[in-house]
Structure formats: C-alpha cells, structure tokens
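The data are quoted verbatim here:
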Amino acid sequence: MILFKSEENRQLIHAYITDDFHANLMNTLDFEACHTTTIRQELRGLPTNEQASVLKALLKPYELPRFMLLFLKLNDSILEAIPDEDIEPTDSLRNGFEKCSLEVAQRIIGFDPVEDRTYINRKQFAEFLLTICRLTVSEKNPDRLLIYNAATGRWGDAEIILNRLIIELAHYVGGGERDSWSSVLEKQVMDILLRKAVITSVHKFNQPVYPFANVTLNTNTGRFVAHNPDFMAVMGSPVPYNPLAKAPRFDRFLNDIFLEDEDVIDFVQTYFGYILSQSHQSNVLLIGVGNGANGKSTLFSCLEELIGKSYVASVPLNNFNTEFGLEPLIDKKLNLATESDANAFKTGKLKAITAGESISINRKNKPEITMILPIKLIFLVNELPMLTDSSLGFERRLLILPFKRTFTAEQQDKDLQTALVGELSGILNWAVEGLNKLIAQNYCFQIPTALREASERYFGVGNPVGKFVQECIHPASGEVIESKLILEMYRHWMVENQFPYKGTDSPRVFWKAFAETMAVAGIDFKKAKSNGKMLVRDVRIDYTVQ
C-alpha cells in the first residue's frame, strides 16, 4: 500500500510500521471506488497454485501488504502458501494494482490535487501514522515522540523515522508529478502527532526487562520472552540470544586474568548478571583496580558490547557532583568509566543511585527532573581513589575487584577482543546464568576472599582518618591531649601501615575528617584553645609509636 522511492528509507522504516490496523480505518474507504473488483476478478481467474506467486510479486515492493489484502477482500493466509514457481503478473494486473494502491493511499492520507498545487489533509495524515506506527510520549518529556521498533523490541526517538516516513508518503501520493511534500506539512503533522499520541506514565518505562536482538530478557525471572511493546523498553542490546551458544575462549580468558580463582570468577558472573537486572536490591557498585596489562579493560569491553554501546555511559567519578554531571546517565543501563585521575570522590549521589532512589538531575537548557536512574556503576582505576565525606557507611556498598596478573607483551593476544566479541551470545548465556544465581541468593553477592581482602585494605587507605579513629581513639571523660600530638600519632600510624597520605595529614583535612568520623562513631569530644595551645578533651589515644 506504500511504495517507497528510497530503498534506504524503506529498510530504515520497515520495523516501525505495523499491519495491525484499527477496524475503523477500513470503514473510511469506498472499496469499489478504487478499482478493486477488476483486480480480484483477474487474480481469481488464475489457477489456485499460481495466485500466491502472482500476489507475492505484486506486493513485494510495497509496505503494509496485509492492508492491501484486506482491502482486496483476500485472506492473508494466501501469502503462507508456497508457490511452485515464480510467476510474474500480467502488465494489466500490475498496472491496475499500482493504480489501486495509489488511490487507496491518497484517500487514506487525504490527498487532493487542487489546480496547480496539492493539498494533504494534515489531520488524516497524522491519524494514519498513528494507525500504522506505535507512538507515545512520556509524561516527563511531552515534547519528544517515541516510536516502537518491532524488530528490536525497543522504543526510541521518533523524529528521524517519522520525518522520512512523511516525505516518502507525501511523494508517493503525489504520484511523482509534483512535489507534494513541504517542511510546513511535516511540521504540522508532527505537531498533531505530539498532541494525539498516547501519554505514558514515566513509571511504565524501565520495566524489569531487557531486549536482545531476537527476544527480551525478563530480568525478574531470568527467562527470555517475545518482544512486546507493552514492556516500554527504551534500551536494549544487539546481541542475539542462542540457548546453545558457548564461550570457550571467554572461559579461558577468565581463568587467565583471575589466576583460576573460581570464587572470583563466580562473583564476576553474578555481577554481569546484576548489570542485566533492573533491580537495585544488591545496592552495590564495583571498582576494578590494577596496574598495567591485566585484562581489566578487555573484560569490561565485553560487558559493554553485551549491554549495547548506545546504552553505556562513561561519566567519571569526579563528574558526579558537577552541575550537569548526571545528565549523561539518563536512559543508560551501565556507567563504565576508566579513571585517569580520581584522587577523591564524594559518595552521596553514588549512594542514591546504587540504592535505586529518586535523584534530581540538572539538564542543560531543559527543566530539572527527578527520577530513578536504572543504571549500574563500574569504575576502572589503576590506583584506588580517596574517600571523602562520611564514608564509613559506604563500605558495604563498594565492591573492589583486584586484577593481580600482568601480561607481558609476549603473552598478550592481539586478536583476543575480536575473538571474544564473536562469543557474545555465549557470554550472554553465562551472564544470565549469573543473574539466576543472584536471584536465588536473594540479590546477596558471595564475596570471595580476594575482594574481601582488597576492601579491608582499601578502607584503611580509602578513609585512613576513619580507620585511625576506629583503632586508636577512644572516649575518656576528663582526659586532655594536645591536638598536634594526635596529628603526629596519625602520621606515625600511616607510615607504620604503609598508607599514602594523599593530603590527609594536613590539619584542615585531618580535623574535618576526624570530626565527621567521631560524629558517626558517636564519640563526643571538645577542641579548643587554652593558654595558646589547641587541646582535645574527653578522648585518649591507644597507640604506641613503633
């Protein structure tokens, strides 16, 4: 029923249009006025075994073939018949079919040639598009039309698709004799669509699903289901699901980089599964740490490919507290950032995101919005960053994955990344297995020894003042100690534990962190000058310089 002039546009638009018409569309047309009787008679005059072949040849260049079958009062089951051979329609049948199809399109869209110009009914045009495309707008962003792609199972921005569909339809109904498209027509039709498309509540988006190339993963159950527009998925992966796919090279790679530590490999599998999940129930984020050629980047490049690069952000830690730092995280599944300089970071917004809490997001030249970001966080570092603010409560949320092996130039496989990309369907099966393990564990990660030890070391380094207070400072009513002695003891303690200062030995940084830590620990103290000396009251130090 629609004949595209541009094959590129046809291939682009095909997955966005549907033959699932509303009944009232058929009732708007006068069947006999469009020369359907002659076409039906000529088709029925052919032998039964030839009808399907001829009909398929007629419909091949057109979109919306089912509509034409309904219009011709033919059962669409005819297309399921397998013809004995390719049989071309007669010229009269082809010409009649082309004329009929054009008339149908002109009547539905509201095309009317008027003297030396053409007129297209904007309202009819828009209503037809609403019939053949699944369109919606989010209540949070009513100026942006979304359109459903049946091939990918995802909703996406409709502007490019609709603009091309409008120009193709306008040129088609114009018959090629005159340019029946204009930018004014396009804008007016788009404006009508914005005001007539269904408004979808923001809460209906980001359901617990994640589409892949051929099916959708229900992330609550760990099972695959057919694509469905009602899932309102706006993200997805191009990786195809194949239940029989394996990933032997990926398995060897994991054993290589993690020194055959099965507990660590099991953890990585469940974390890959957690990335697929829509749940924030685990309430964690991951930092991968290690110097040099250790496989860290290669491993998480596989994860990026698995998720789909379009839905992976790379916002560094330091940007999370800038004015527009969170905006790139909107409509992303994963934030995977390689940190070149993360000497310190604040944890407040990280806590809200990992917990799945609503958070306010400033957007450039747009109103601020409050939403839950359906995103998981991974940061890759050579050296662990410093923690600031009240970081003691952050310890249970932060998982540290150490990469201990370094590969020499001779040991590195230059074709490894290509080989692993070729196993993505197998890696998907492996990650879904990890998701199912995590679901069975009620979203509680089994923390292997290597990660637990890395965390224990880090929270000595990550919040050294807090660690010092925890180990060495105790409440002691009535006792008095000079403040400079506490700072001096802290410096000795840092050297003894081989922790880097990273500025925490400066009086301003130390005493700010000291006060925050004491407040969290519930230890009261007073710090004030007396006889020219700064004194700290009601605490004692249990530490001896070695």
User: Anything to note?
Assistant: The mean pLDDT is 88. Residues 91-109 form the longest helix (19 residues). The chain is about 40% helix and 20% strand.
